[in-house]
């Protein structure tokens, strides 16, 4: 039977709690039965397939192993730009100085355009998108409340099932104990019969040996 289909039908409300010696004996039998398969997983479960990560995932795992932070977002666009150390008019014959200032101006124009667009989007959000954002939050709260009600209903159903199970077990507790006692007596009588039959067989063999002499 697969592990996922196994059903443990126990009677926790009428069965007596095992003694420490009985529990230790049961654990010893379980350990003996498992043998070399003693582990946290069931011996019938197949072994996990070897993992094959892509180079990107492997690099991320290596980064996490080294304790390095994720550098996925470039924060330089949020930082103030520093002007070059040289003056653009200090030496007009130096092309590198002019190239540095030209690059700095391009970055400044780009940052200014980004900040203007961001400010415009925030203004539009403040003017038109606030109500939509609030409505979205309200809808999420409705979904959360519905899930909480469903969870409470499921918990109530589980409690009812547990109470019904307890009542059903307690109702048949005496009958189960009587059947258990009858089974024990039946097994004892079978053993007594087998012992008496074995003793009678030995007596017959002994009488035959004496008659043969």
Tell me the distance between the termini. Answer: 60 Å
SS class: mainly alpha
- Computed over alpha carbons, the radius of gyration is 41 Å
Query: What is the general shape?
Result: elongated
* Quaternary assembly: single chain
Mean pLDDT: 81
The largest sheet, given as strand count, sense and whether it forms a barrel, is: none
The proportion of residues in beta strands is under 5%
Amount of helix: 55-70%
Count of runs of 4 or more consecutive helical residues: 4
Listing every helix as H and every strand as E from the N terminus to the C terminus, the arrangement reads HHHH
Return residue spans where pLDDT drops below 50 for at least 5 consecutive residues: 1-8
Structural summary, described in words:
The chain is mainly alpha-helical and 213 residues long. Helix content is 68%, strand content 0%. The protein has four helices and no strands. It has helices at 20-34, 55-66, 95-171, 173-212. The longest helix is centred in the middle third of the chain and has 77 residues, at 95-171. The two termini are 60 Å apart.
Describe this structure in a few short sentences.
By secondary structure, the chain is an all-alpha fold. It contains four helices and no strands.
Highlighted features:
single chain, 4 helices, 213 residues, mainly alpha
What topology does this entry show?
Blueprint: H1 20-34, H2 55-66, H3 95-171, H4 173-212
């Amino acid at each position: 039977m697969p592990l996922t289909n196994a059903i443990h039908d126990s009677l926790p409300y009428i069965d007596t709690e095992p003694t420490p010696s009985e529990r230790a004996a049961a654990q010893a039998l379980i350990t003996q039965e498992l043998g070399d398969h003693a582990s946290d997983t069931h011996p019938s479960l197949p072994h996990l397939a070897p993992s094959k990560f892509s180079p990107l995932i492997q690099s991320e795992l290596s980064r996490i192993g080294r304790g390095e932070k994720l550098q996925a977002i470039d924060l330089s666009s949020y930082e103030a730009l520093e002007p070059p150390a040289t003056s653009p008019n200090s030496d007009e014959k130096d092309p590198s100085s002019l190239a540095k200032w030209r690059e700095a101006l391009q970055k400044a124009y780009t940052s200014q355009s980004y900040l203007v667009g961001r400010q415009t989007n925030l203004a539009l959000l403040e003017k038109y998108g606030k109500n939509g954002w609030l409505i979205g939050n309200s809808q999420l709260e409705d979904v959360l409340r519905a899930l909480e009600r469903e969870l409470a209903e499921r918990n109530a159903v589980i409690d009812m099932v547990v109470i019904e199970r307890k009542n059903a077990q307690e109702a048949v507790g005496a009958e189960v104990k009587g059947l258990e006692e009858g089974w024990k007596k039946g097994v004892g009588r079978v053993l007594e019969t087998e012992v008496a039959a074995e003793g009678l067989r030995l007596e017959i063999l002994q009488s035959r040996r004496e008659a043969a002499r």
